[in-house]
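Forwarding these from the shared drive since the link keeps breaking.
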Amino acid sequence: MGHREDLLEGAKRCLLEKGFARTTARDIVKESGTNLASIGYHYGSKDALLAQAYVTLVEELSGAFEGGGADERPGELPGGPGSLERFRAVWANVVATMREPGSLWRLSMEIVVMGDQLPGVRDELARAQREGSRGFVSLLMGVPEEEVTDATADTLGSFYTTLMLGLIAQWTFDPKTAPDADALTEGLRQVVEGAANR
């Protein structure tokens, strides 16, 4: 690996160990075996490097949303596109990532709270969030990501992203009472049923 990749891997380890606010440039350099000048050369700033490291961590973890547990093969979700069965399966996989000790999602709450203090990082993560919204639509509706329009990413995708952020907040605040996939699916079923009866 070159310095760019070493820095990214070191930043990922620092984020998971120390969080965003407590990670210093020197921590990253020590963890990556590089030098301070290489951060500016490859990423522009420590915060830009940490933002990229966070996005990479989320991308790596998002593969778990497709499953591959005992009842399914990787990438093969039950139910048809847009079905409650698929909705439940995807959210069960998402919740499973939140149950793991040292979950990345706790770090997400720190970054949400710090957003106003780091406008450049916030802008970078907002772009990544839109692509995450596109990914949710692709996964839940069974269409290739490149076919998800900006309008769909900004509506249906934003709905799924908002659900994800709320779920992260609840699992971070009180995992004992946070909803699981069954509760989320039943809630959605009630919303759909209520709308259909109006």
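-- next protein --
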Amino acid sequence: MSDPTRRAELFGGVDNDRRFTGPTTGDERLMLVDVLGAQRATLQLKCSGLGPEVSLRSVEPSTLSLLGLVRHLADVERRWFRRVLAAHDAPALFSSTAEPDGDFDGATDDPGTVAAAWETWRTEVAFAEQFVTKAPDLDVEGEDPWRGTVSLRWVLIHMIEEYARHNGHADLLRERIDGAAGL
């Protein structure tokens, strides 16, 4: 007989998981912020308990790794909240025109690289959270060379989509590293 435990329960158990307990009706901003927070927490969960192995690659020739995702999402947070919505001069930290995949290619097992990636990600998330809290409404706008005029509402939805897609990658990467699976 097969094990009746669901894969979703294998990553800490459903009873301990408080990521998806926010409101399901009501205020739009509260719901968007809560869902984005849950997606950010999922990325952290997928990387929890790992040291340098967080930089292990998926399969050749891909350079995809959990650490690369952390670095990539730090740059994504920075782009949309700091550069586009807040209009700061804030170039990407891990990738560039010369090294467009620097966020993934530079994700090495060096402890300083790992620590810097997490520190940068946390700094960018904190900036984004503060920006959203201070914004008068979801109609705050910024200019992006790719999308044109974007609203805070659109950026929050895009960030949820961005994290959800990459958390799917993180599921597979983490399972490859140590067999851990689940939501």
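Strands lie at 141-144, 148-151. The helical segments are 28-47, 66-85, 102-105, 111-134, 152-178.

- D.
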